[in-house]
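Sanity check

After download, print the first record. It should look like this:
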Amino acid sequence: MTHNNPKKFLVGSDVEQLSRLDYVTGIQRVVIESHKFLYKELNNFGFSIQGFMSRDEPRLLEYRKSKYYMSDPVINGEVVDLASLDLVLLLDLNWGFSFPALLKEKQKRKLPVISIVYDFLPINFPDWFPVENAKTAFRVYLQKLIAVSDHIVFNSKKVQDDFHSLNWKFQGQTHVIPLGAFDVPSKIPHYLSPPKSIITVSTIEPRKGHSEIIDAFDILRERGENFNLFIVGRYGWDSEELVERILTHPEYGGRLRWFPKLDDTEVSALYDGSTVAVVASFDEGFGLSIEEALAHSLKVVARDIPVFREREQPNLTFFQNGAENLANAIMKAEGNNWNAETAKTLRTMDDFSMELCNLITSQL
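Expected structure tokens:
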């Protein structure tokens, strides 16, 4: 795109969904961290980034209840009109986005749109989600997203492969830009002589594998292994029996603890007080917990699934399905020496944001 006027190119990022929320999940964290990086980096290229909303409605300000949201300079800045934008970023999962408004604007002029698709799980595994007709609803949403997009970014090759398997027509370009840790990787472990502690960080929902983690914890207890188990994450859905199991477990409040409402600082401290992280999801679009734990110098045990295999590296051990296999993998990881190469090889959100920034600037 060529401009003869001296004004800065204006990148617009959809902040409609962010404005409604006061809790933070993985996608919101990706959006916020990307905003913080892009806000600074785009300025070096002579561009600026501001928030926009697709609907002409009063802006909800629920995000102001969260200190973490308040660190995002885009959502806290002026919200601009769609008509003023030179490029559109759709980073969030916004079911209420007005695609007709964006299509109408694109019909008037060249307006590049870059979108991120994090996964196709509601299509591939609709039973994992509480939304009625989740598969159909998500399919319709994604097809609308694709119709307005010139570039689609996938956060893993697995998600890109899932997209191609659907055989949907798309005239634009696709890109794989893996996510990364939110924290700068530590060069050495924080702990000196910690108690053996397992940590798992994720929303409590069916696909995250919590039951298998508790089973493995019980197996280790039966073997006489003195591990703690820290379960970090708010309650999601369809897991009432699991919550009952946690609350009635004989070690609950002692060696087994559930932390449903920790902020980022508290989660970081709990990572630093643990020795092994377990990521037991049956499927993911990415699974940021792996990078997060490795950045805190934890040895990580992850389920052996394709999206996790994309990130093989030191200090990451895989396990096959089954609590016995998980327990054995935890013991193997616990006994391994920490390999300092992780500090050199681990991706961060700055790496993700820089590649996204390069894609944005190539379009303007």
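If your output differs, re-run the checksum step. Summary of this record's structure: Confidence is low (pLDDT under 50) at residues 1-6.
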